Amino acid sequence: MVALGTVPAVRSVRNQTGAWDHAGASRNPILSDRSTATEKLTQYTTGHSFAYEVTGFTNVVLRRLVYGARGEWTYTPDGSGTVIRWTYELRPLRRRYWLVRHLPVFTRPPRP
Predict the structure, then answer these.
(1) In this predicted model, what pLDDT tens digit does every residue of 21-60 receive, in sequence order?
(2) Has this prediction a pTM greater than 0.90?
(3) CB 88, CB 74: distance < 8 Å
(4) Measuring CA to CA, which residue among 34, 41, 24 is closest to residue 57?
(5) In sequence order, what are the residues at sequence separation of 6 or more whose Cβ sits closer than 8 angstroms to the Cβ of residue 48?
(6) Angle value at C-alpha 73, between 100 and 95, nearest 5 degrees
(7) How many Cβ atoms from other residues are within 10 Å of residue 55's Cβ?
(8) Which of 8, 69, 80, 100 fits 54 for a cystine, CB–CB 3.0-4.6 Å?
């Protein structure tokens, strides 16, 4: 995954608790800046969607702004293809809402 904005790219995972195909599975993403987090699958519907929560960010910026995040992927048939939708929600720490709301979370930095 490519790093975009404030969130570093996922480079690998460790400590995965089995197949990533059921609610309750967990793992530790290793991010491109060498920080980590804990990711837990909260919902899984075969061939349709999955959702997860991320907590315990060790990234120097994220750990000071958010206590967690929630992501969801859905797959919807569309003619001969599939529409993939990814939503991501950051959960700000108390009194950090305004800062988090204005973070360039998933924006590409300008190219030189």
Answers:
(1) 999 999 999 998 999 999 999 999 999 999 999 999 998 8
(2) no
(3) no
(4) 34
(5) 74, 75
(6) 15
(7) 14
(8) 69
